[in-house]
Every structure is written in structure tokens, then in C-alpha cells.
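::Amino acid chain::
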Amino acid sequence: MKTISLCMIVKDEEEVLERCLRPVRPFVEEIIIADTGSKDSTKVIAAGYADQVYSFPWNDDFAAARNFAFSKASMDYCMWLDADDVMTQENLEKLKIWKNQEDRADVVMMKYLTGVDEKGRPSLSYYRERLLKNHSGFWWKGKVHEAIPLAGTIQYTDMEVLHQKVKKGDPDRNLRIYENMRKEGGLQEPREWFYYGRELYDHQNYSRALEVLHHFQEMPGAWLENKIESCLQAAACQEALGNETEAMGELVRSFLWSAPRAEICCEIGRLWMKQKQWKNAAAWYQQALRDTRSLQSGAFIREDCRGFLPAIQLCVCYDHMGSRKRAYGYHCLAKKFRPDSEWVLYNDRYFSDTN
């Protein structure tokens, strides 16, 4: 049977830490926690579940903290979770089954659910490296939005981890770290520029975000999936600046690197809808429905863009074009995806009232 060291870094997580640790404790052989300066009861809670609890001086470097925790692991595999992550009993049972299988991949990928809708259904997900063979040279890189460069045999699984925040952290922390890196000449990797641009967008510094995202897109070695995602971010910047034509151009730029993605198509469709160009919008939403991209690409997957969203928008488009039969058909399709959506319920009433 494979053994697991769960390695975590925490700070002021008293509200969520026990929620994370209690279910997972019976399924791992070792828990190692590096506390980076908690002022609440986090370390006390950690001591009730962890085999080792360390104090790690925070130095604005997530990779350094995670690597410290990994360095203390003694089991076959290192696994990581954040304090506000949750593994359901169903997924923990899958982990138990995996542990008893003979295959020994170097890296085990699990789907990370980082966004949910009003009903708790996944709305944003992507695969992350979750279990890594110990003593095999796997180390975290990146002061912020840290990741482990993948190597060896990679296994994709149907196990899932839900990221479930209960409070907001410091909204300026990541941007502050990136700005300090830039001043010190430490922004070198394409991934760092990509996330720096996203942080600038989140802080509504749209013009500077565009400069950074465009620079990232031209960098040698920039990951294709991040390039495509950067087009969505750049388009949002242009739209926020009132440049809708340029926003469309940013989205189309993604076709340099890939066939149209559902997320891109939905944004192009939305921009056409803003101009009441219903036929043009419908063409792009239909393309979104045809996207069958593998979830194992590593990209940010917006679940609704391959089903509910284009269906509900096609209902609107065809209704405006006077094709009631097609509009109703797409309403029925949207209803299959999300029968309890307020938009679907509204359209139920609309079609009932106009029959």
C-alpha cells in the first residue's frame, strides 16, 4: 500500500483548519504543518491532528514555505492541501482505493474545484498536481501562485478537491509581492508575468495589466493555456476601458494558438449580443456548444461555457431573430443543464405566457 504525507502551510486558519483535517486524517499516514505566523488558535488546532507542526518565518515566498513542509515528509508520496480545501468522503474513499493500487505514478492529478454556482455546483475547475512521489526531485517554484514542474509518469484521476473559502484574505498581498519582485528584477518566468497581469486586472489597473499581459504573450516558453487565458483577461481590460472593438481583437488573438475555445466563444458571443447582432452572436454560441476540449489540458474550465450559458443565450438570440421554435429548443437544452436557474424559470413563464 502507498503511504502519504499531507504537507500544508497555514496562517490564521482557525475557522477552517479542522474542517479540512478531520476528514482526511484517517486516510493519510502523516500530517506535516508549517505555520507562517498565526496569531489565532491555528497551531493549537493543528497540533490535534498533525504529527509535526513547525513555525516557518514568512518571507513573501509561498514556494519556500511549501518546500519546507515537503522536506519534512517521510512517506511514499507528498500531498498538499490548503486549509480552506475540502475533500468529501466520496473522494477520500477514492483516495483509499488509489493507495491500494499497484501502479506508482510520479505525479497524481486531481480536479480542483475553485468556483461554484448558487447551488454549489462546480463553475470553475482545473487539474492540479496533488500527490507527488517523495524524494523524486519535485519542488515548488514561484513566490506566488506557486506550482511544481511536472515530470515522469503523470496520472489523471477523478478525485476532486473543493476550495471553499469562508473569509477573504489580504487582497493586496499578491500584487505587493509581484511589485517587489519587479523592482528587484525578480520577474523572469512567463508564469509570473501572467499572474502579475491578472493581479493588476483585479486591482482595476487595466492599462498596466494590458501591457503586462501583452508582454507575457510574447515571452518564449509561455504556456499555451495561459496564453489563451490571457486573451480573456486582456479582453476584459479593453472592455473596462471602453474599447469593445479592441476587446474583440484580444479574443480573436487566441486563435493564433488554438482552435476556438468555449470560453472565448462565449465572450465573443456576448460582445455581439451587446451590439444586438443576434445572428453573429448565435454563431459563436453554437461553436461553444461544439467544444469538446479535454479537461486534462490544465486550463481553467468554466463548466457553463460548454452547456448552460451558450444554450440560454441562443434562446435569447433566436427569440430576437423571430425564430420562436429554435428559441424554445435552446430553452429546453438550457433547462437540462440547470433546471432551477432563475433564467430558465423566467423563460418557462415567458414561453407559457406567449403560447
